[in-house]
Design a protein that fits this description.
312 residues, 15 helices, mainly alpha
């Protein structure tokens, strides 16, 4: 009898707690929220009524579950973090742009478009080229000057004119600055890198090309006299190739020797000699340089390896 009375008492207490929970939340609290203009009042009443049913069907367990859920939800550890004073560096954000697949499908090399000479595709390719790094595409753009489409030729001529005029102006300013005392090594370095990028594309007339190569040589001589460490293998190789392209063998030979002197353990020191002696048709010197390369510990790239296989 005592067990039955205890069970009935527990059921009564559970029923009383469920009724109090329903009245407090579904009547008083929801009515108060409705007076404040809160939305979804009807939805809140429905949820409280469903909880009331669960508490009747699952005595003790359901009320305890809802009680602990309320306590856990309102503990400080679960509260939303206040990040108002946190500053995120925008420099660390890398934006990934979606690829323009439609545009990429229609991209072909400008040389092919010029060969086909189909006006619509040629103009589209030309505009895509002009949107990119135009300074590295001058030799390709210059090919468009000889085609029949006047609009494309006009695009090419306008761009070339602007870039080359800018080049002339910048080089002249750098050259004047380089001549000042004390010697500014940074200006000479920037001048060599800037001029090599444009001159290697051979977009100037022969006379103008030779003139700028002489200016390039002066800047390199200044570095050789005042800061040999600034004459990297890439810079020496570029100067040597500019002389070799104009078949000025004395200048090319001078910078080949200096490249070997300053960077004897670089592959460029050997490949420049090979190109020089091959252009000069100096067979003995060519094979002597080739044997020196084969006996050295220099790491060889694929192109040079194929050259060795061809002449071995």
């Amino acid at each position: 009898m005592r067990d039955e009375r205890g069970f009935l008492l527990l059921i009564f207490i559970n029923f009383l707690a469920a009724v109090i929970y329903l009245l407090w939340n579904a009547v008083f609290w929801v009515t108060f929220q409705e007076g404040k203009g809160t939305e979804d009042v009807g939805e809140n009443r429905r949820s409280y009524f469903l909880r009331f049913i669960v508490m009747l069907l699952c005595p003790v367990v359901a009320p305890l579950f809802f009680l602990f859920s309320y306590l856990i939800y309102h503990l400080p550890v679960w509260t939303e973090l206040n990040l108002w004073d946190v500053i995120f560096s925008k420099e660390r954000v890398r934006i990934q742009l979606k690829a323009d697949e439609e545009r990429e499908r229609n991209v072909v090399p400008l040389e092919e478009a010029i060969t086909v000479n189909e006006k619509t595709n040629l103009r589209m390719v030309m505009m895509n080229v002009l949107k990119g790094d135009i300074q590295s595409s001058l030799s390709t753009v210059s090919l468009a000057l000889k085609i029949n489409d006047t609009e494309t030729s006009h695009y090419a001529a306008s761009v070339l004119s602007d870039v080359l005029n800018e080049f002339r102006s910048n080089v002249q300013k750098m050259y004047v600055e380089m001549q000042k005392e004390p010697v500014c090594i940074e200006v000479a370095e920037a001048m060599i890198d800037y001029m090599n990028q444009i001159l290697e594309q051979r977009v100037f007339t022969e006379i103008e090309q030779r003139h700028y190569i002489q200016m390039l040589d002066e800047a390199a001589e200044l570095l050789y006299d005042y800061s040999e460490g600034s004459l990297t293998a890439k810079r020496c190789e570029g100067i040597c190739m500019r002389f070799l392209e104009e078949r000025e063998f004395e200048g090319a030979k001078k910078w080949c020797q200096r490249l070997s002197e300053l960077h004897a353990d670089e592959l460029a020191a050997y490949t420049c000699k090979l190109k020089l002696y091959f252009t000069m048709k100096n067979r003995d010197a060519f094979f002597e340089a080739l044997e020196s390369l084969k006996e050295s510990d220099v790491v060889i790239d694929y192109e040079t390896l194929e050259l060795i296989r061809l002449f071995s």
